[in-house]
Each structure stands twice: as structure tokens, then as C-alpha cells.
Design goal:
The chain has nine helices and twelve strands. It has a seven-stranded mixed β-sheet with strand order 4-1-2-3-5-6-7. Strands 8-9-10-11-12 form a five-stranded mixed β-sheet, with helices on both faces.
């Protein structure tokens, strides 16, 4: 793995767009968590600005999130709660930023709800994720109203190029600053995104591989009931956790950010200032 040659003229800007939140008991987020304290969770979209283009990594909760939830199977609907904030679409409009695309970490509702708000943008997912989205196994968190006919899906395959210990990767702009890697397990086509702001400031967005960053340090999975319903292949998720542990030991400058861990997301926002 070679890091990019850093240039201030080709800097990357990272912004978190908070679209919703939830405040569950910590015990539901990882094995061995407390049943007596809350764990703040967020539903973000990540805005990435690069000299060659701007994109969202995930969309968070879209303008139609509350309507979309009604299409879930009944048991998933009962388990899905959230406090909705301003959608990514509205925040992007307010900022006056032009987007070129949306890249999804995976296609679950809380990461793709806002896809329908951007009918003019290509929505990029891995070939494996697109195939998974069409299966019965995905129906609890991926359902038709998320992706109306106006959505322009564009599939891609990761290359067999090692990056930071991960065997498959995709350098989005070819300069080493924004690199996707495969994180299969939570869903077959899940990916993470390295955001290399500088040599000292590096963020790794890992989607739902874990919900709580403490799971990486402790080497534990999600709460048994949670992983049973949300992780497609729990055994593979454990392998990913081990890979994240190895990364943290090998490259301590990398801030690993689970999408829903509000504490980690706040640290990423601070690092990106």
C-alpha cells in the first residue's frame, strides 16, 4: 500500500450530514454492553468533496423515510425507531453543492433511504450488493419503495488490489485519497471508505460492520439478537472485526468510524476541521 503524495491544491473535504438519531441501550449495540446506560447513535450521510468531484457516501434517512418504513415486514417495522432530522437532500441544497454520484456502503434502509431523493444521480453499489438486494434474505431492510424506477443504479467490482490489509479495493479518483475496500459480512457487498485528508488525518468509514466502536477494541460482535437479524453472515463479520483490530494496531493514525456510533462520528467531524 502506498499513500498519496499530499498536495494542498488537491485537498479532500469531509462533512457529516446528520439525518436522524436513536438512543438505544448500549447492550443492544454489542455483546457484553450495559443494560443500564444509553448509547447515542446517528443516521448520517457523509459528504465528500474532491477536486475531481463530490459525492455522498450513504444517504442516511431521506425525505420519505417515515413512509418507506411502512413497507417493511411487520417485525422489522416494530424494531425500527428513529428521530428524523433534516434530510441530506435539503442540506445539500442549502450548501449549494453539486453532487456527481452517491456511493452506498450497503443497501439497507438506514443507509439508502435518501436514494429516492436524488433521481438524477448514479447510485453506485457493488455487484454483490445489487445481487443481494434482490434476494429474500435482504427483504427486511431492503424493499421496493427504497428504490423507485427513477433510481439509476450503477454497479462496480472491487479490484484485486490490497489496501491496508484488505485484499480488494477501488481508488475512486486514482490518487490514493478516497479508497473503497470490501467489508463483506453484514451484507455480501458491504464496503468501507478510507478518507485520507492528510498523512496524519485519516478516517475509515466502516458502515455497519460494527455499530459501536468498542466492539473493535473488545473483539466482540453485535448483541446476539441484533446480529441474528441484521448480519447476513455473522462469522464473516467477526473476521472483519479482527481485520479492523489489526488495522488499528498497525496504523493507529486511522480513525475507524462505524456509521451509527455518534461518538466516533463526532471525532471524525473534529478531525476534519
Amino acid at each position: 500500500m502506498s499513500l498519496p503524495v499530499w498536495s494542498q491544491n488537491e485537498s479532500v473535504k469531509f462533512t457529516v450530514l446528520k439525518t436522524g438519531s436513536i438512543d438505544p441501550l448500549e447492550a443492544t449495540t454489542l455483546q457484553g454492553g450495559s443494560w443500564f446506560k444509553r448509547f447515542p447513535m446517528t443516521h448520517p450521510a457523509f459528504l465528500i468533496e474532491h477536486p475531481k468531484g463530490n459525492f455522498l457516501f450513504d444517504t442516511g434517512l431521506g425525505t420519505k423515510a417515515k413512509e418507506q418504513v411502512q413497507d417493511m415486514v411487520w417485525w422489522a417495522r416494530l424494531a425500527t425507531e428513529f428521530n428524523q432530522d433534516v434530510s441530506a437532500l435539503e442540506q445539500i441544497k442549502e450548501k449549494g453543492i453539486k453532487l456527481d454520484r452517491i456511493i452506498l456502503s450497503h443497501a439497507h434502509f438506514d443507509h439508502s433511504s435518501g436514494v429516492a431523493d436524488f433521481p438524477d444521480l448514479p447510485i453506485e453499489v457493488t455487484v454483490e450488493e445489487m445481487a443481494f438486494a434482490k434476494t429474500k434474505d435482504a427483504s427486511a431492510a431492503i424493499f421496493p419503495s427504497l428504490f423507485p424506477e427513477t433510481v439509476q443504479f450503477k454497479t462496480y467490482e472491487l479490484e484485486a488490489k490490497e489496501y491496508e490489509g484488505f485484499p480488494k479495493s477501488r481508488d475512486i479518483y486514482g490518487d490514493g485519497k478516497l479508497v473503497l475496500v470490501g467489508l463483506p459480512g453484514h451484507t455480501p457487498g458491504s464496503v468501507g471508505l478510507f478518507v485520507n485528508l492528510s498523512i496524519e488525518k485519516r478516517i475509515f468509514l466502516v458502515g455497519d460492520t460494527v455499530w459501536n466502536a468498542d466492539a473493535i477494541e473488545k473483539g466482540v460482535p453485535k448483541f446476539w439478537f441484533s446480529k441474528k437479524f441484521v448480519d447476513n453472515k455473522p462469522d464473516e463479520v467477526m473476521l472483519r472485526i479482527q481485520e479492523l483490530q489489526a488495522l488499528q494496531k498497525r496504523s493507529p493514525e486511522v480513525l475507524i468510524v462505524p456509521s451509527h456510533d455518534a461518538r466516533s462520528v463526532a471525532k471524525a467531524m473534529e478531525l476534519a476541521k
